[in-house]
Task: structure prediction
Amino acid sequence: MNVSKSARNFVASHIASLPKSGIREFFDIVNTMDDVISLGVGEPDFTTPWNIREAGTFSLEQGHTAYTSNLGMLSLRKEICKYVACNYGVKYNPNNECIVTIGVSEALDIAMRALLNPGDEVIYTTPCFVSYPAEITMAHGVPVPVPTYEKDNFTLTPETLQQVLTPKSKVLLLNFPCNPTGAVMGLENLKAVAEIAEKHDLIVITDEIYSELVYDGLEHHSIAALDGMRDRTIFLHGFSKAFAMTGWRVGYACGPAEIIDAMMKIHQYGIMSANTTSQEAALEALQNGTSAMLKMRESYRERRNVMVKMLNDMGLKCVMPQGAFYAFPNIQSTGLDSKTFARQLLEKEHVAVVPGVAFGECGEGYVRCCYATGIQDIIEAMKRIKHFVDGLKK
Amino acid sequence: MQEHILNLLRENARISVEEMALRLNASADEVTAVIAELEKNNVICGYTAILNEVSSNKVNALIEVKITPQRDGGFDTVAKRIAKFDEVKELYLVSGAYDLLLEVEGESLQQVAMFVSGKLSTIDGVLSCATSFQLKKYKQSGRIIDCEESYERLKICP
Result:
Protein backbone atom coordinates (compact mmCIF):
# COMPACT_ATOMS: atom_id res chain seq x y z
CA MET A 1 0.00 0.00 0.00
CA ASN A 2 1.30 3.37 -0.90
CA VAL A 3 1.05 5.85 1.85
CA SER A 4 1.09 9.27 0.30
CA LYS A 5 2.92 11.97 2.07
CA SER A 6 0.45 14.07 3.92
CA ALA A 7 -0.69 16.61 1.36
CA ARG A 8 -0.43 20.29 1.90
CA ASN A 9 -3.70 21.76 3.16
CA PHE A 10 -5.01 23.08 -0.11
CA VAL A 11 -8.19 24.67 1.22
CA ALA A 12 -8.02 28.42 1.63
CA SER A 13 -7.89 29.40 5.28
CA HIS A 14 -10.90 31.73 5.15
CA ILE A 15 -12.98 28.87 3.70
CA ALA A 16 -11.59 26.21 6.00
CA SER A 17 -12.61 28.31 8.98
CA LEU A 18 -16.20 28.73 7.74
CA PRO A 19 -18.62 26.77 9.91
CA LYS A 20 -21.07 24.45 8.13
CA SER A 21 -24.68 25.56 8.23
CA GLY A 22 -26.32 24.51 11.51
CA ILE A 23 -29.26 23.28 9.51
CA ARG A 24 -27.31 20.53 7.83
CA GLU A 25 -27.08 18.07 10.76
CA PHE A 26 -30.85 18.20 11.29
CA PHE A 27 -31.38 17.50 7.65
CA ASP A 28 -29.48 14.25 8.02
CA ILE A 29 -31.54 13.08 11.02
CA VAL A 30 -34.86 14.06 9.43
CA ASN A 31 -34.07 12.03 6.36
CA THR A 32 -33.95 8.84 8.41
CA MET A 33 -37.54 9.29 9.67
CA ASP A 34 -40.81 8.59 7.91
CA ASP A 35 -43.66 10.49 9.50
CA VAL A 36 -41.93 13.79 10.18
CA ILE A 37 -43.95 16.98 9.99
CA SER A 38 -41.42 19.52 8.91
CA LEU A 39 -41.67 23.15 9.94
CA GLY A 40 -38.03 23.41 9.00
CA VAL A 41 -38.33 24.59 5.44
CA GLY A 42 -37.59 28.00 3.99
CA GLU A 43 -39.77 27.89 0.92
CA PRO A 44 -43.45 28.02 -0.05
CA ASP A 45 -45.44 24.78 -0.09
CA PHE A 46 -47.25 25.90 -3.24
CA THR A 47 -46.04 24.88 -6.65
CA THR A 48 -45.36 27.78 -9.01
CA PRO A 49 -48.69 29.10 -10.38
CA TRP A 50 -49.61 27.36 -13.62
CA ASN A 51 -49.48 30.43 -15.88
CA ILE A 52 -45.85 30.96 -14.85
CA ARG A 53 -44.90 27.32 -15.37
CA GLU A 54 -46.70 27.42 -18.71
CA ALA A 55 -44.67 30.49 -19.77
CA GLY A 56 -41.52 28.52 -18.94
CA THR A 57 -42.49 25.47 -20.98
CA PHE A 58 -43.70 27.69 -23.85
CA SER A 59 -40.32 29.40 -23.88
CA LEU A 60 -38.66 26.00 -24.27
CA GLU A 61 -41.10 24.98 -27.01
CA GLN A 62 -40.22 28.15 -28.88
CA GLY A 63 -36.58 27.16 -28.74
CA HIS A 64 -35.44 30.01 -26.47
CA THR A 65 -32.45 28.05 -25.30
CA ALA A 66 -29.56 30.44 -25.84
CA TYR A 67 -27.79 32.90 -23.49
CA THR A 68 -29.45 36.21 -22.77
CA SER A 69 -27.63 39.50 -22.34
CA ASN A 70 -25.29 39.39 -19.32
CA LEU A 71 -27.58 41.73 -17.44
CA GLY A 72 -30.62 39.58 -18.29
CA MET A 73 -33.38 39.99 -20.89
CA LEU A 74 -34.11 43.67 -21.43
CA SER A 75 -37.86 42.95 -21.48
CA LEU A 76 -37.55 41.43 -18.01
CA ARG A 77 -35.35 44.25 -16.71
CA LYS A 78 -37.90 46.80 -17.96
CA GLU A 79 -40.69 44.94 -16.20
CA ILE A 80 -38.61 44.63 -13.00
CA CYS A 81 -37.88 48.37 -12.97
CA LYS A 82 -41.56 49.12 -13.52
CA TYR A 83 -42.51 46.74 -10.69
CA VAL A 84 -39.94 48.24 -8.31
CA ALA A 85 -41.01 51.81 -9.16
CA CYS A 86 -44.72 51.00 -8.61
CA ASN A 87 -44.36 48.90 -5.47
CA TYR A 88 -41.33 50.35 -3.72
CA GLY A 89 -41.23 53.91 -5.02
CA VAL A 90 -37.66 53.83 -6.41
CA LYS A 91 -36.88 54.39 -10.08
CA TYR A 92 -34.05 52.50 -11.79
CA ASN A 93 -32.91 52.56 -15.40
CA PRO A 94 -33.35 49.06 -16.90
CA ASN A 95 -30.37 49.64 -19.21
CA ASN A 96 -27.69 50.00 -16.56
CA GLU A 97 -29.18 49.92 -13.05
CA CYS A 98 -30.65 46.41 -12.96
CA ILE A 99 -29.12 42.95 -13.23
CA VAL A 100 -30.90 39.58 -13.28
CA THR A 101 -29.15 36.97 -11.13
CA ILE A 102 -29.38 33.33 -10.00
CA GLY A 103 -31.65 34.12 -7.09
CA VAL A 104 -30.92 36.73 -4.44
CA SER A 105 -28.09 34.46 -3.26
CA GLU A 106 -25.96 35.27 -6.29
CA ALA A 107 -26.96 38.93 -6.17
CA LEU A 108 -25.75 39.11 -2.57
CA ASP A 109 -22.52 37.31 -3.42
CA ILE A 110 -21.59 39.59 -6.31
CA ALA A 111 -22.64 42.68 -4.37
CA MET A 112 -20.27 41.72 -1.55
CA ARG A 113 -17.43 40.93 -3.91
CA ALA A 114 -18.00 44.16 -5.82
CA LEU A 115 -17.92 46.29 -2.67
CA LEU A 116 -15.47 44.80 -0.21
CA ASN A 117 -11.77 45.28 0.22
CA PRO A 118 -10.15 42.84 2.67
CA GLY A 119 -10.91 43.95 6.19
CA ASP A 120 -13.97 46.07 5.39
CA GLU A 121 -16.66 45.56 7.99
CA VAL A 122 -20.18 44.52 7.07
CA ILE A 123 -22.87 45.06 9.66
CA TYR A 124 -25.79 42.67 9.46
CA THR A 125 -28.72 42.08 11.78
CA THR A 126 -29.05 38.79 13.64
CA PRO A 127 -30.77 36.38 13.95
CA CYS A 128 -30.39 36.19 10.17
CA PHE A 129 -30.45 34.03 7.11
CA VAL A 130 -27.64 31.47 7.49
CA SER A 131 -25.68 32.65 4.43
CA TYR A 132 -24.97 36.23 5.44
CA PRO A 133 -21.85 35.91 7.62
CA ALA A 134 -20.44 33.25 5.27
CA GLU A 135 -21.02 35.44 2.20
CA ILE A 136 -19.21 38.31 3.91
CA THR A 137 -16.28 36.10 4.91
CA MET A 138 -16.00 34.57 1.45
CA ALA A 139 -15.70 38.09 0.03
CA HIS A 140 -12.87 38.81 2.53
CA GLY A 141 -15.03 41.13 4.58
CA VAL A 142 -15.42 41.11 8.34
CA PRO A 143 -18.90 40.13 9.54
CA VAL A 144 -20.18 42.37 12.33
CA PRO A 145 -23.47 41.13 13.76
CA VAL A 146 -25.91 43.59 15.28
CA PRO A 147 -28.49 41.86 17.45
CA THR A 148 -32.23 42.40 17.26
CA TYR A 149 -34.37 41.62 20.28
CA GLU A 150 -37.75 40.15 21.01
CA LYS A 151 -38.61 43.23 23.10
CA ASP A 152 -38.27 45.34 19.91
CA ASN A 153 -40.24 42.80 17.86
CA PHE A 154 -36.87 41.87 16.32
CA THR A 155 -36.57 45.14 14.41
CA LEU A 156 -33.26 46.99 14.18
CA THR A 157 -33.10 50.01 16.45
CA PRO A 158 -30.78 52.97 15.77
CA GLU A 159 -29.35 52.60 19.29
CA THR A 160 -28.05 49.06 18.79
CA LEU A 161 -26.73 49.96 15.34
CA GLN A 162 -24.74 52.87 16.82
CA GLN A 163 -22.98 50.45 19.16
CA VAL A 164 -21.31 48.39 16.41
CA LEU A 165 -20.14 51.22 14.14
CA THR A 166 -16.38 51.58 13.69
CA PRO A 167 -14.24 53.54 11.21
CA LYS A 168 -14.02 50.33 9.17
CA SER A 169 -17.79 49.94 8.78
CA LYS A 170 -18.59 50.00 5.08
CA VAL A 171 -21.76 48.03 4.39
CA LEU A 172 -25.04 47.65 6.23
CA LEU A 173 -26.93 44.51 5.22
CA LEU A 174 -30.65 44.50 5.97
CA ASN A 175 -33.28 41.80 5.53
CA PHE A 176 -36.80 42.92 6.39
CA PRO A 177 -39.24 41.19 6.43
CA CYS A 178 -36.76 38.96 8.19
CA ASN A 179 -35.89 35.29 7.92
CA PRO A 180 -36.09 33.82 10.62
CA THR A 181 -38.02 36.28 12.82
CA GLY A 182 -40.72 37.57 10.46
CA ALA A 183 -39.92 41.10 11.68
CA VAL A 184 -40.82 44.14 9.60
CA MET A 185 -39.13 47.56 9.95
CA GLY A 186 -41.47 50.43 10.75
CA LEU A 187 -40.92 53.66 8.83
CA GLU A 188 -39.65 55.56 11.87
CA ASN A 189 -36.84 53.12 12.68
CA LEU A 190 -36.02 52.74 9.01
CA LYS A 191 -35.56 56.52 8.69
CA ALA A 192 -33.33 56.62 11.74
CA VAL A 193 -31.22 53.78 10.34
CA ALA A 194 -30.98 55.57 6.98
CA GLU A 195 -29.75 58.71 8.74
CA ILE A 196 -26.99 56.72 10.43
CA ALA A 197 -26.03 55.16 7.09
CA GLU A 198 -25.74 58.61 5.53
CA LYS A 199 -23.85 60.10 8.43
CA HIS A 200 -21.30 57.27 8.48
CA ASP A 201 -21.15 56.98 4.70
CA LEU A 202 -22.32 53.34 4.64
CA ILE A 203 -23.67 51.56 1.61
CA VAL A 204 -26.82 49.56 2.33
CA ILE A 205 -27.61 46.18 0.82
CA THR A 206 -31.28 45.48 1.38
CA ASP A 207 -32.51 41.94 0.78
CA GLU A 208 -36.26 42.36 0.35
CA ILE A 209 -37.07 38.86 -0.85
CA TYR A 210 -40.06 38.60 1.51
CA SER A 211 -41.41 42.10 0.91
CA GLU A 212 -44.69 41.05 -0.76
CA LEU A 213 -45.45 38.86 2.23
CA VAL A 214 -46.50 41.40 4.85
CA TYR A 215 -49.81 40.95 6.62
CA ASP A 216 -52.78 42.70 8.17
CA GLY A 217 -52.73 45.58 5.68
CA LEU A 218 -49.27 46.68 6.80
CA GLU A 219 -47.25 48.64 4.24
CA HIS A 220 -43.73 47.52 3.38
CA HIS A 221 -41.17 50.34 3.14
CA SER A 222 -37.88 50.01 1.30
CA ILE A 223 -34.90 51.91 2.62
CA ALA A 224 -33.94 52.58 -1.01
CA ALA A 225 -36.98 54.86 -1.31
CA LEU A 226 -36.01 57.15 1.57
CA ASP A 227 -34.51 60.58 0.90
CA GLY A 228 -30.89 60.40 -0.17
CA MET A 229 -30.71 56.60 0.03
CA ARG A 230 -31.16 55.53 -3.59
CA ASP A 231 -27.55 56.22 -4.49
CA ARG A 232 -26.14 54.37 -1.49
CA THR A 233 -28.42 51.32 -1.61
CA ILE A 234 -28.37 48.05 -3.51
CA PHE A 235 -31.89 46.66 -3.65
CA LEU A 236 -32.08 42.86 -3.88
CA HIS A 237 -35.23 40.99 -4.73
CA GLY A 238 -36.44 37.93 -6.57
CA PHE A 239 -39.31 35.61 -7.36
CA SER A 240 -38.72 32.65 -5.04
CA LYS A 241 -40.94 33.47 -2.09
CA ALA A 242 -43.82 35.63 -3.36
CA PHE A 243 -44.33 33.66 -6.56
CA ALA A 244 -43.33 30.24 -5.17
CA MET A 245 -40.42 29.97 -7.61
CA THR A 246 -37.51 28.82 -5.40
CA GLY A 247 -36.31 26.11 -7.79
CA TRP A 248 -36.24 28.46 -10.80
CA ARG A 249 -33.33 30.34 -9.21
CA VAL A 250 -34.03 33.84 -10.42
CA GLY A 251 -33.60 37.15 -8.65
CA TYR A 252 -32.24 40.61 -9.32
CA ALA A 253 -30.33 43.58 -8.01
CA CYS A 254 -31.07 47.26 -8.65
CA GLY A 255 -28.72 50.06 -7.70
CA PRO A 256 -26.54 52.92 -8.87
CA ALA A 257 -25.06 52.31 -12.35
CA GLU A 258 -21.42 52.14 -11.30
CA ILE A 259 -22.12 49.47 -8.69
CA ILE A 260 -24.34 47.40 -10.96
CA ASP A 261 -21.56 47.69 -13.55
CA ALA A 262 -19.03 46.32 -11.06
CA MET A 263 -21.39 43.49 -10.09
CA MET A 264 -21.95 42.79 -13.77
CA LYS A 265 -18.23 42.17 -14.29
CA ILE A 266 -18.24 39.40 -11.66
CA HIS A 267 -21.51 37.99 -12.97
CA GLN A 268 -20.24 38.09 -16.56
CA TYR A 269 -17.09 36.13 -15.82
CA GLY A 270 -18.59 33.82 -13.23
CA ILE A 271 -22.10 33.09 -14.47
CA MET A 272 -22.57 34.60 -17.96
CA SER A 273 -26.32 35.07 -17.64
CA ALA A 274 -29.24 33.81 -15.59
CA ASN A 275 -31.20 30.81 -16.88
CA THR A 276 -33.23 31.85 -19.95
CA THR A 277 -36.32 29.72 -19.23
CA SER A 278 -36.48 31.10 -15.70
CA GLN A 279 -36.21 34.67 -16.95
CA GLU A 280 -39.17 34.17 -19.28
CA ALA A 281 -41.20 32.61 -16.47
CA ALA A 282 -40.24 35.51 -14.19
CA LEU A 283 -41.53 37.95 -16.80
CA GLU A 284 -44.90 36.20 -16.71
CA ALA A 285 -44.87 36.33 -12.91
CA LEU A 286 -44.50 40.11 -12.96
CA GLN A 287 -47.03 40.63 -15.73
CA ASN A 288 -49.76 38.21 -14.64
CA GLY A 289 -48.82 36.73 -11.28
CA THR A 290 -50.30 39.18 -8.80
CA SER A 291 -53.65 37.51 -8.15
CA ALA A 292 -52.06 34.12 -7.50
CA MET A 293 -49.51 35.78 -5.23
CA LEU A 294 -52.21 37.55 -3.19
CA LYS A 295 -54.09 34.27 -2.77
CA MET A 296 -50.96 32.57 -1.42
CA ARG A 297 -50.35 35.51 0.90
CA GLU A 298 -53.85 35.23 2.35
CA SER A 299 -53.25 31.56 2.94
CA TYR A 300 -49.97 32.26 4.78
CA ARG A 301 -51.73 34.85 6.93
CA GLU A 302 -54.34 32.33 8.09
CA ARG A 303 -51.73 29.71 8.87
CA ARG A 304 -49.68 32.25 10.78
CA ASN A 305 -52.72 33.04 12.92
CA VAL A 306 -53.22 29.36 13.72
CA MET A 307 -49.57 28.69 14.55
CA VAL A 308 -48.93 31.77 16.67
CA LYS A 309 -52.14 31.34 18.68
CA MET A 310 -51.41 27.69 19.39
CA LEU A 311 -47.78 28.42 20.34
CA ASN A 312 -48.81 31.13 22.79
CA ASP A 313 -51.61 28.96 24.21
CA MET A 314 -49.13 26.19 25.04
CA GLY A 315 -46.88 28.65 26.84
CA LEU A 316 -44.23 29.26 24.16
CA LYS A 317 -44.28 33.04 23.92
CA CYS A 318 -44.32 34.09 20.29
CA VAL A 319 -44.32 37.60 18.85
CA MET A 320 -46.88 37.93 16.03
CA PRO A 321 -44.65 38.02 12.92
CA GLN A 322 -45.73 40.71 10.49
CA GLY A 323 -44.01 39.36 7.40
CA ALA A 324 -42.29 36.42 5.67
CA PHE A 325 -43.59 32.96 6.66
CA TYR A 326 -41.80 32.18 9.91
CA ALA A 327 -42.80 32.19 13.56
CA PHE A 328 -39.92 32.52 16.04
CA PRO A 329 -41.22 31.35 19.43
CA ASN A 330 -39.25 31.82 22.64
CA ILE A 331 -38.50 28.41 24.17
CA GLN A 332 -36.53 29.61 27.22
CA SER A 333 -39.38 28.61 29.56
CA THR A 334 -38.63 24.96 28.74
CA GLY A 335 -35.11 25.25 30.17
CA LEU A 336 -33.64 23.69 27.02
CA ASP A 337 -31.25 25.34 24.60
CA SER A 338 -32.52 25.58 21.04
CA LYS A 339 -30.49 22.68 19.64
CA THR A 340 -31.53 20.31 22.42
CA PHE A 341 -35.15 21.43 22.07
CA ALA A 342 -35.13 20.84 18.32
CA ARG A 343 -33.33 17.51 18.58
CA GLN A 344 -35.58 16.12 21.33
CA LEU A 345 -38.71 17.38 19.60
CA LEU A 346 -37.63 15.63 16.44
CA GLU A 347 -36.76 12.38 18.20
CA LYS A 348 -39.80 12.24 20.48
CA GLU A 349 -42.55 13.82 18.41
CA HIS A 350 -41.21 13.73 14.87
CA VAL A 351 -41.63 17.45 14.30
CA ALA A 352 -38.75 19.31 12.67
CA VAL A 353 -38.04 22.93 13.57
CA VAL A 354 -34.79 24.84 13.15
CA PRO A 355 -32.85 25.81 16.31
CA GLY A 356 -32.59 29.59 16.60
CA VAL A 357 -28.85 29.40 17.18
CA ALA A 358 -28.44 28.34 13.53
CA PHE A 359 -29.31 31.95 12.69
CA GLY A 360 -26.72 33.51 14.97
CA GLU A 361 -25.84 33.47 18.65
CA CYS A 362 -28.65 35.80 19.60
CA GLY A 363 -31.12 33.30 18.12
CA GLU A 364 -30.39 31.04 21.10
CA GLY A 365 -33.53 30.51 23.15
CA TYR A 366 -35.77 30.45 20.08
CA VAL A 367 -36.70 28.07 17.28
CA ARG A 368 -37.90 28.85 13.76
CA CYS A 369 -41.19 27.32 12.65
CA CYS A 370 -42.17 27.82 9.03
CA TYR A 371 -45.90 28.21 8.40
CA ALA A 372 -45.66 27.66 4.66
CA THR A 373 -46.97 24.19 5.45
CA GLY A 374 -50.42 22.61 5.04
CA ILE A 375 -52.87 23.78 7.70
CA GLN A 376 -53.68 20.28 8.95
CA ASP A 377 -49.97 19.56 9.33
CA ILE A 378 -49.54 22.79 11.28
CA ILE A 379 -52.37 21.90 13.65
CA GLU A 380 -51.00 18.37 14.15
CA ALA A 381 -47.45 19.69 14.64
CA MET A 382 -48.66 22.17 17.27
CA LYS A 383 -50.43 19.36 19.14
CA ARG A 384 -47.24 17.33 19.11
CA ILE A 385 -45.17 20.31 20.30
CA LYS A 386 -47.66 20.89 23.11
CA HIS A 387 -47.37 17.23 24.10
CA PHE A 388 -43.59 17.60 24.11
CA VAL A 389 -43.60 20.83 26.12
CA ASP A 390 -46.13 19.45 28.63
CA GLY A 391 -43.92 16.37 29.04
CA LEU A 392 -40.95 18.56 29.96
CA LYS A 393 -42.86 20.10 32.86
CA LYS A 394 -43.39 16.74 34.59
CA MET B 1 -64.86 38.62 7.70
CA GLN B 2 -67.82 37.41 5.59
CA GLU B 3 -65.65 37.16 2.52
CA HIS B 4 -62.92 35.27 4.38
CA ILE B 5 -65.44 32.80 5.77
CA LEU B 6 -66.96 32.24 2.35
CA ASN B 7 -63.50 31.56 0.92
CA LEU B 8 -62.78 28.98 3.62
CA LEU B 9 -66.13 27.26 3.03
CA ARG B 10 -65.60 27.23 -0.72
CA GLU B 11 -62.32 25.48 -0.13
CA ASN B 12 -63.75 23.00 2.37
CA ALA B 13 -67.40 23.15 3.46
CA ARG B 14 -66.71 20.65 6.26
CA ILE B 15 -64.14 22.85 8.00
CA SER B 16 -64.84 23.20 11.73
CA VAL B 17 -65.89 26.47 13.29
CA GLU B 18 -62.90 26.20 15.63
CA GLU B 19 -60.44 25.95 12.77
CA MET B 20 -62.03 28.90 10.99
CA ALA B 21 -61.79 30.94 14.18
CA LEU B 22 -58.10 30.10 14.55
CA ARG B 23 -57.30 30.92 10.94
CA LEU B 24 -59.18 34.20 10.96
CA ASN B 25 -58.02 35.29 14.41
CA ALA B 26 -61.62 35.48 15.62
CA SER B 27 -63.72 33.73 18.25
CA ALA B 28 -65.81 30.66 17.46
CA ASP B 29 -68.96 32.56 18.45
CA GLU B 30 -68.22 35.32 15.95
CA VAL B 31 -67.73 32.81 13.16
CA THR B 32 -70.93 30.95 14.05
CA ALA B 33 -72.86 34.21 14.02
CA VAL B 34 -71.53 35.26 10.62
CA ILE B 35 -72.36 31.88 9.09
CA ALA B 36 -75.87 31.99 10.53
CA GLU B 37 -76.33 35.44 9.00
CA LEU B 38 -75.03 34.27 5.61
CA GLU B 39 -77.38 31.30 5.67
CA LYS B 40 -80.33 33.44 6.72
CA ASN B 41 -79.70 35.90 3.90
CA ASN B 42 -79.44 33.07 1.40
CA VAL B 43 -75.86 34.01 0.52
CA ILE B 44 -75.05 30.43 1.44
CA CYS B 45 -77.80 28.35 -0.17
CA GLY B 46 -76.44 24.97 0.90
CA TYR B 47 -73.40 22.71 1.14
CA THR B 48 -72.47 19.93 -1.23
CA ALA B 49 -69.69 17.46 -1.97
CA ILE B 50 -67.39 17.33 -4.98
CA LEU B 51 -67.54 13.77 -6.25
CA ASN B 52 -65.24 11.84 -8.48
CA GLU B 53 -67.46 10.37 -11.25
CA VAL B 54 -66.07 6.89 -10.65
CA SER B 55 -68.11 6.74 -7.48
CA SER B 56 -71.38 7.56 -9.21
CA ASN B 57 -73.39 5.85 -11.95
CA LYS B 58 -75.28 8.99 -12.88
CA VAL B 59 -75.46 10.36 -16.40
CA ASN B 60 -74.88 14.06 -16.86
CA ALA B 61 -75.52 16.28 -19.85
CA LEU B 62 -75.05 19.93 -20.73
CA ILE B 63 -77.96 21.29 -22.73
CA GLU B 64 -78.00 24.51 -24.74
CA VAL B 65 -81.51 25.85 -25.02
CA LYS B 66 -82.89 28.62 -27.23
CA ILE B 67 -86.06 30.21 -25.94
CA THR B 68 -88.48 33.01 -26.82
CA PRO B 69 -88.48 35.73 -24.18
CA GLN B 70 -91.96 36.27 -22.76
CA ARG B 71 -93.76 39.60 -22.86
CA ASP B 72 -93.94 40.10 -19.11
CA GLY B 73 -91.09 38.10 -17.67
CA GLY B 74 -88.40 38.15 -20.37
CA PHE B 75 -86.23 35.03 -20.06
CA ASP B 76 -87.11 34.56 -16.39
CA THR B 77 -90.55 33.03 -16.88
CA VAL B 78 -89.30 30.12 -18.97
CA ALA B 79 -86.07 29.74 -17.00
CA LYS B 80 -87.89 29.49 -13.68
CA ARG B 81 -90.21 26.82 -15.07
CA ILE B 82 -87.23 24.78 -16.24
CA ALA B 83 -85.42 25.24 -12.92
CA LYS B 84 -88.21 23.49 -11.04
CA PHE B 85 -87.44 20.09 -12.60
CA ASP B 86 -85.42 17.92 -10.23
CA GLU B 87 -83.33 16.67 -13.14
CA VAL B 88 -81.89 20.17 -13.66
CA LYS B 89 -78.79 20.64 -11.49
CA GLU B 90 -77.50 23.91 -12.87
CA LEU B 91 -79.14 26.57 -14.98
CA TYR B 92 -77.69 29.78 -16.38
CA LEU B 93 -78.87 32.54 -18.71
CA VAL B 94 -75.90 33.13 -21.00
CA SER B 95 -74.75 35.41 -23.80
CA GLY B 96 -73.96 33.98 -27.22
CA ALA B 97 -75.60 31.64 -29.71
CA TYR B 98 -78.19 30.24 -27.27
CA ASP B 99 -79.98 31.55 -24.20
CA LEU B 100 -79.93 28.98 -21.39
CA LEU B 101 -77.27 26.49 -20.38
CA LEU B 102 -78.46 23.58 -18.23
CA GLU B 103 -76.73 20.76 -16.53
CA VAL B 104 -79.04 17.79 -16.25
CA GLU B 105 -78.49 14.63 -14.25
CA GLY B 106 -80.27 11.30 -14.66
CA GLU B 107 -80.03 7.66 -13.69
CA SER B 108 -79.49 6.57 -17.28
CA LEU B 109 -78.95 7.93 -20.76
CA GLN B 110 -82.51 7.05 -21.58
CA GLN B 111 -83.87 8.96 -18.63
CA VAL B 112 -82.03 12.12 -19.70
CA ALA B 113 -83.23 11.64 -23.29
CA MET B 114 -86.81 11.28 -22.06
CA PHE B 115 -86.47 14.44 -20.03
CA VAL B 116 -85.23 16.43 -23.04
CA SER B 117 -87.80 15.14 -25.54
CA GLY B 118 -90.75 14.72 -23.21
CA LYS B 119 -90.43 17.64 -20.83
CA LEU B 120 -87.90 20.29 -21.77
CA SER B 121 -88.71 20.57 -25.50
CA THR B 122 -92.41 20.75 -24.92
CA ILE B 123 -92.30 23.79 -22.63
CA ASP B 124 -93.96 26.80 -24.15
CA GLY B 125 -91.25 29.18 -25.39
CA VAL B 126 -88.52 26.58 -25.84
CA LEU B 127 -87.36 26.74 -29.47
CA SER B 128 -84.53 24.22 -29.61
CA CYS B 129 -82.21 22.07 -27.49
CA ALA B 130 -78.69 20.79 -28.17
CA THR B 131 -77.60 18.06 -25.73
CA SER B 132 -73.99 17.14 -24.96
CA PHE B 133 -73.45 14.13 -22.71
CA GLN B 134 -70.51 14.39 -20.36
CA LEU B 135 -67.88 11.71 -20.97
CA LYS B 136 -65.29 12.58 -18.39
CA LYS B 137 -64.90 15.19 -15.68
CA TYR B 138 -61.53 16.90 -15.33
CA LYS B 139 -62.27 19.75 -12.96
CA GLN B 140 -65.15 20.82 -10.76
CA SER B 141 -65.59 23.72 -8.34
CA GLY B 142 -61.96 24.68 -8.85
CA ARG B 143 -60.77 21.20 -7.94
CA ILE B 144 -58.84 19.07 -10.43
CA ILE B 145 -60.23 15.51 -10.34
CA ASP B 146 -57.44 12.93 -10.11
CA CYS B 147 -54.66 15.49 -9.77
CA GLU B 148 -51.47 13.60 -10.44
CA GLU B 149 -49.08 16.34 -9.42
CA SER B 150 -46.97 15.71 -6.38
CA TYR B 151 -43.55 16.87 -5.40
CA GLU B 152 -41.74 16.50 -2.15
CA ARG B 153 -39.84 19.48 -0.82
CA LEU B 154 -36.63 19.17 1.10
CA LYS B 155 -37.59 18.68 4.74
CA ILE B 156 -35.07 21.19 6.05
CA CYS B 157 -33.74 24.19 4.16
CA PRO B 158 -32.52 27.67 5.07
